[in-house]
Structure formats: structure tokens, C-alpha cells
Design a protein that fits this description.
mainly alpha, Helix Hairpins, Rossmann fold, 7 helices, 3 strands, 5% strand
Length: 202
């Protein structure tokens, strides 16, 4: 039972590796699938305990009704066509419902944020703040500081349609400047490779 909180922490921890995140996601999916399978089996056991041979519409209960009941209960739809009357069945229904709510409102949103929304946002930010310039970039001005002087220089360069790039060490600062209309690239100012990435030789 210690796995579930650990997995939730991993899903919301931005520093964990992508491969480990995938393993955690697969493990969570397997937990849900195993729970559905076990719940379906227990459903038939309780139905036999209550001598339930048909649903509320007088349809004979089939083997697949266990999966149907489990999914309906987990999703809290509550169609009411298959219901237990004993205290055991009612408490069991409550447990399945609580697990379904946990899955829908906690596990699935965390998984969506971690594996869909965050990668999309990272891709958007990476496109706005590249670390390299195209290989055919040449004749451009590389600026390494953003102050009133460089701001005035950028204004003049834009006025005369001269290409430039502002090399920024901090990604958040680069995003802020990009949103202000400044052409930026991310790189360590003390790293020669960063200048090669912005085509300093061209």
C-alpha cells in the first residue's frame, strides 16, 4: 500500500526521470486493472451469497456483469439495475465507489498533468527559448546583457531589420524577455559551447 502515495509523489515531482515516470504510470494502470478484475470476481461471490440470479430488470446475471457493475460503480454513475441488498454488499459497493473516486479525481488528473500537460508546456517553452540557432544563421548580433544600453541597441537593430539574439543564462528570464518581444536563446554565458550554439563564428 506504500506504492500509491509514492507513485503520486513521483507523478508530481518534476525532477524524476521520464523512464521512471513511465514505469510508475504503467504500475498505476495495472493497479486499476487488477482492482477491476478482483472486484468483478468478488461481485459474483457476493451475488451468489445473496442468491442474486438476476438484476432489477429480471435479466439473468452473466459473467460480464461483474465488469459492468464494477465500472458503473467506480464511475459513480449508479444506474441502479444491479444492486446489493445485504450489508456486506452495500459496504463492498461503497469501497469500490471510493476507489473509483480516488482514481478519477486524484490518480488520473495527476497522470494527465505529468504525462500530457507538462510535456506540452515544456515543448512550448523550449520553442520560445531555444538553446541553438539554425545553422544558416549568420550576420547577427549576439547580446549577452539586458540593460538600458542593450535595450536601446535592440531597438535600433529591430528598426533596421538587423538580426540579433540575446543570450540569457536563466530560462525563466528568457521566457519573460521572449514575452516582451525580445529574440532570446538560453545558454551559460561562461560556456563556449553556448556561443557556438548561437553561431558566434558566423
Amino acid at each position: 500500500m506504500k506504492f500509491l502515495p509514492t507513485a503520486l509523489f513521483t507523478l508530481t515531482n518534476g525532477k524524476s526521470s521520464g523512464r521512471r515516470n513511465v514505469r510508475q504510470l504503467i504500475s498505476l494502470v495495472l493497479i486499476v486493472l487488477v482492482f477491476i478484475l478482483i472486484s468483478s470476481v468478488v461481485f459474483h461471490w457476493i451475488a451468489a451469497h445473496e442468491n442474486m440470479v438476476s438484476d432489477n430488470n429480471n435479466n439473468e446475471i452473466k459473467w460480464y456483469d461483474g465488469f459492468y457493475w464494477t465500472m458503473v460503480t467506480m464511475s459513480t454513475l449508479g444506474y441502479g439495475d444491479i444492486t446489493f441488498s445485504s450489508p456486506l454488499g452495500k459496504f463492498y459497493s461503497l469501497g469500490v465507489m471510493l476507489f473509483g473516486m480516488l482514481s478519477m479525481f486524484i490518480i488520473l488528473p495527476f497522470a494527465f498533468i505529468r504525462f500530457a500537460y507538462e510535456p506540452w508546456m515544456e515543448a512550448q517553452n523550449a520553442a520560445r527559448t531555444p538553446r541553438t540557432l539554425p545553422e544558416d544563421t549568420r550576420g547577427h548580433v549576439i547580446i549577452t546583457n539586458f540593460d538600458p544600453v542593450s535595450r536601446a541597441l535592440i531597438h535600433k537593430l529591430e528598426q533596421y531589420a538587423n538580426p540579433y539574439v540575446l543570450l540569457v543564462g536563466d530560462k525563466d528570464e528568457a521566457l519573460r524577455l521572449h514575452d516582451q518581444g525580445v529574440v532570446v536563446a538560453v545558454g551559460d554565458l561562461d560556456d563556449p559551447e553556448a556561443f557556438r550554439n548561437v553561431r558566434v563564428e558566423q
